């Protein structure tokens, strides 16, 4: 019995046909995983820089950053989250670009992981470990001791 038209999809775009290409692919994956770790650290640093800038501007203009006790639900004043401030357009664009690149990279690395190739999976993990070692040389004691260690293994 004849079947209707078939849809042929070739979803592979990264072809590895030689040992040299495979080695370079593993090195590229290690670099991409390290880049992802760098982007995580850099986006946190950018957020800290923006927050400091906004709090300095607020202090210079005479406004104070809202006290969490004053904006609690019990006081009845809860028009915006405590300690929040509007981010100006240029830093907002920078944050959005960094977020978009990190989301793209995290999904790309996830797809590499989903090839179920042990060597490529190992390359992703090795790159993440190397990137964490290189770019994770500092720790925020206040955050960790408060019980919030960060995102951990979250994709983005």
UniProtKB/TrEMBL annotation:
Localization of this protein: Membrane
Membrane topology summary: Multi-pass membrane protein
InterPro entries documented for this protein: Cop_transporter (IPR007274)
TM annotation in the entry: 12-36, 96-113, 118-135
Region annotation (Disordered) ranges: 61-86
Keyword terms: Copper, Copper transport, Ion transport, Membrane, Transmembrane, Transmembrane helix, Transport
PANTHER family according to UniProt: COPPER TRANSPORT PROTEIN, SOLUTE CARRIER FAMILY 31 COPPER TRANSPORTERS
Entry's family note: Belongs to the copper transporter (Ctr) (TC 1.A.56) family. SLC31A subfamily.
Name of the featured protein: Copper transport protein
Organism: Fistulina hepatica ATCC 64428
Lineage of producing organism: Eukaryota, Fungi, Dikarya, Basidiomycota, Agaricomycotina
